[in-house]
């Protein structure tokens, strides 16, 4: 039994802790909360012990908290840091490094420059075993994780025949539960999006990937439009779609009108947190023109990284064989069943509309 502390109880932290609480090999040591809001009660009502920073303890006197983060994390085997982007680095310096505690960071952190949290980005499809002895590892962001799931099978099948991967990322503005962020009526762009460097850090610096990223006014997932240019005639759309048939965490859907369609279905079928935990290839948008395959897929921003954190945790804590780790993650996340249901539902609809 290993003790794991989750530091931060926002979109990602609240999901991770809920799933790992059902893991028979893990004792959840508690969760770190930084603001005395309604989410403290939410965490306690779900059976989690809440710990707070020493210097903020007075702010939480109306809540039944269990102690301070500083006192509680020392005897943990691992901290899963789910703080806002950039704060993970501060936590590393103030909390984890001085106590020599191992930690997983989330995708809003940096892997180069002054504020590096780790030199390693995890993607279960690409580098599962490399996480075994790491003290610090970063789980790639939702977009970075999704791109790995798409690019790795292409790379394995076509290798150097792929000349370029040009991806346009349409990123959601805020998460569903994030009532504080106002979704602005604007389309914004990112200068030097981090995704390019992050993906190349684990897929290889020679990956011919070129990214543009735009933030669009929605809370409902990300969409990536990826053009895969081949050296010579491109494979057929059918061949490309078949490539993803048995990929874990990749569903192939038809007849979807937009990302909300998928969330609404996830909600109707009572998937936890309305998440599918995967990417969805929109098969009927896949086109081939001469040497280019045009792929479109959507990426469940909040859900996709949660099973990945669970896989990374198993690699770091148990050095479990990859197949065993996936089997164990499947017991908690039921990804095969979710994929089957999504594919059945979004196949039927196109059949019904023709
Ligand atoms: P969030 O704002 O929903 O939650 C962050 C939580 O951390 C908040 O509850 C905040 O009060 C708390 N916090 C504040 N200071 C803290 C500290 N010093 N230590 C620990 N926690 C602290 O953010 P989020 O969306 O859950 O994102 C967390 C991380 O996960 C970021 O790195 C983000 O880039 C990454 N990520 C987010 C998504 C997503 O869709 N939301 C997807 C993939 C990765």
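^ structure tokens above, recovered residues below v
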């Amino acid at each position: 039994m290993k003790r794991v502390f989750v530091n931060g109880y926002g979109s990602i932290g609240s999901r991770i802790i809920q799933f790992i609480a059902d893991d028979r090999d893990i004792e959840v040591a508690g969760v770190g909360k930084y603001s005395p809001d309604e989410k403290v009660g939410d965490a306690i009502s779900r059976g989690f012990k809440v710990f707070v920073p020493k210097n903020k303890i007075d702010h939480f006197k109306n809540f039944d908290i269990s102690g301070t983060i500083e006192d509680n994390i020392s005897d943990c085997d691992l901290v899963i840091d789910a703080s806002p982007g950039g704060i993970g680095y501060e936590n590393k310096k103030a909390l984890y490094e001085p106590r020599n505690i191992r930690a997983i960071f989330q995708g809003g952190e940096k892997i180069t420059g002054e504020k590096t949290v780790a030199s390693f980005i995890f993607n279960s499809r690409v580098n599962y075993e490399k996480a075994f002895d790491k003290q610090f590892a970063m789980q790639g962001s939702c977009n970075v994780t999704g791109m790995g799931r798409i690019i790795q099978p292409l790379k394995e099948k076509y290798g150097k025949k792929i000349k370029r991967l040009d991806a346009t990322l349409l990123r959601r503005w805020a998460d569903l539960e994030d009532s504080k962020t106002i979704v602005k009526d604007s389309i914004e762009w990112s200068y030097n999006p981090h995704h390019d460097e992050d993906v190349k850090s684990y897929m290889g610096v020679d990956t011919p990937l070129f990214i543009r990223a735009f933030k669009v006014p929605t809370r409902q997932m990300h969409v990536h439009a990826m053009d895969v240019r081949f050296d010579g005639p491109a494979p057929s759309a059918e061949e490309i779609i078949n490539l993803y048939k048995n990929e874990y965490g990749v569903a192939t859907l038809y007849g979807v009108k937009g990302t909300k369609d998928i969330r609404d279905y996830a909600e109707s079928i009572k998937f936890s947190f309305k998440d599918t935990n995967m990417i969805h290839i929109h098969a009927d948008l896949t086109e081939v023109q001469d040497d280019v395959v045009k792929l479109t897929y959507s990426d469940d921003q909040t859900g996709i990284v949660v099973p990945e954190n669970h896989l990374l945790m198993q690699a770091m804590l148990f050095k479990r064989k990859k197949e065993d780790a996936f089997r164990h993650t499947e017991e908690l996340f039921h990804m095969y069943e979710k994929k089957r249901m999504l594919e059945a539902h979004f196949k039927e609809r196109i059949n019904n509309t023709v």
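The CA atoms of residues 2 and 317 lie 8 Å apart.
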